[in-house]
Amino acid sequence: MSETAPIWVLADDRAGNVGQCLGVAEALGQPFVVKDIRYGRLGGLPNLLRGASLTGITADSAAVLTAPWPRVVIAAGRRTAPVARWIKRRSGALLVQIMDPGPGGRAEFDIIAVPSHDDCRLTGGLVLPITGAPHRVTPAKLAEAAEMWAPRFAHLPRPWVAVIVGGATRRRPFTPAMAAELGGRAADLATGGSLLVTTSRRTGAESEQALLAAIPQPNFIHRWGAAGDNPYFGFLALADALVVTGDSVSMACEACASPAPVYLFAPDGWVVAKHARLHAQLFTLGLARPLEAGTRLERWSHPPLNAATDIAAAIKARLT
Fold first, then answer.
1. Strand, coil or helix: what is 1?
2. Which residues, listed in sequence order, are joined to residue 111 by a DSSP beta bridge?
3. Which pLDDT does position 171 carry in this prediction?
4. Domain layout of the chain by residue ranges
5. Alpha carbon of 143 to those of 87, 149, 302: distances in Å?
6. CA 109 to CA 84: how far, in whole Å?
7. Cβ(252)–Cβ(243) below 8 Å
8. How many C-beta neighbours within 10 Å does residue 152 have?
9. Residue 4: pLDDT band with limits 50, 70, 90
10. What is the pTM of this model?
11. What is the DSSP pairing of strand 241-245 with strand 7-11?
12. β-strand partners of 222
């Protein structure tokens, strides 16, 4: 990626936000460069105090924000907003923000892509409502993953049901009992076939153990932190159905980029309200179904979901 690329991606310490920005940049199909943003002791100040400035970021981060200036800046999350505004005042760049940048300076952003499940009250011509979150799952990446992983799964009987497990969040635990329930429901869904399972850092050792104890053989297991290649894209590319825990917006949306049936596991009262709103949208749009007790595997398909393409299209329209 050229340092003189006309597109800058502001990448801070929120990996999920960075992934969304990269998804949009990749969907544009043009050269881009990533500008790493790290925060100092003033990085937690409200944006109303930081203004359109580099206040709160480290000297190393500020040092790379120099001419030649970009034509487009893509950022996500409130803490990057003052930096994006500072760049615009020097370059006139088109500012693209994923999620509400917060009070103070909203009018300086040219496109604010707002996930509708956030229940954001912003209005105006600059607001672009999107379903879910943009991501980096594309047909080309899935095709590449399918070629790599198909031989590794070939010995397993079908259907292949992938189980993509998140876990506890700041507000909600993921208990061993819930994990065991997930394992049992997924096993029922894959009757006669195999489960392809991957866990995450948030799953927790006890819940991971309970999950795996509820899963019969044969299967393919990738534990969090295990050595070797990560099969995540292989699961998305090859599974006959996908089961995803409902604690992660990105996991749900990435699963819906696959043409396979998607089932969301979210027991009543487990997920926060905005996640529940996203699930309801995905169900209404026919992109996913709930994984309930007694759910049986059905063959159905849906169009791929990726808000990155919608945001990229809006950017191109503004540049023409």
1. coil
2. 96
3. 85
4. 7-131+309-319, 139-290
5. 37, 10, 17
6. 9
7. no
8. 14
9. low
10. 0.91
11. unpaired
12. 198
Alpha carbons within 13 angstroms on the beta-carbon side of residue 194 total 17
Report the alpha-carbon distance of residue 315 to residue 95 in Å, rounded.
9
Taking domain 139-290, whether its CATH number is 3.30.420.40 is answered by no
312: tokens are 């990229």
pLDDT recorded at residue 1: 41
> Over the stretch 9-30, which tens digit does the pLDDT of each residue have?
999 999 889 999 999 999 999 9
Other Cβ atoms less than 10 A from the Cβ of 191: the count is 11
Q: Topology of 7-131+309-319 in CATH?
A: Rossmann fold (3.40.50)
- How many alpha carbons lie under 13 Å from residue 83 in its C-beta half-sphere? 30
Q: What separation in angstroms does the CA of 299 have from each of 14, 160, 236, 295?
A: 36, 12, 16, 13
CA distance 254 to 244: 10
Domains 7-131+309-319 and 139-290 share a fold: yes
Residues in the chain: 320
Mean pLDDT along residues 132-155:
97
Closest Cα partner for 245 from 206, 211, 214, 294?
211
Show the CA angle centred on residue 198, arms to residues 188 and 216, nearest 5°. 35
Distance of CA 127 to the CA centre of its chain: 20
Residue 246 identity (one-letter amino acid): G
Cα dihedral across residues 217, 223, 229, 235: positive or negative: positive
| Distances from the Cα of 113 to the Cα of 22, 109, 185, 238, 320, angstroms | 14, 10, 35, 31, 19
Radius of gyration, CA atoms only, the chain: 21
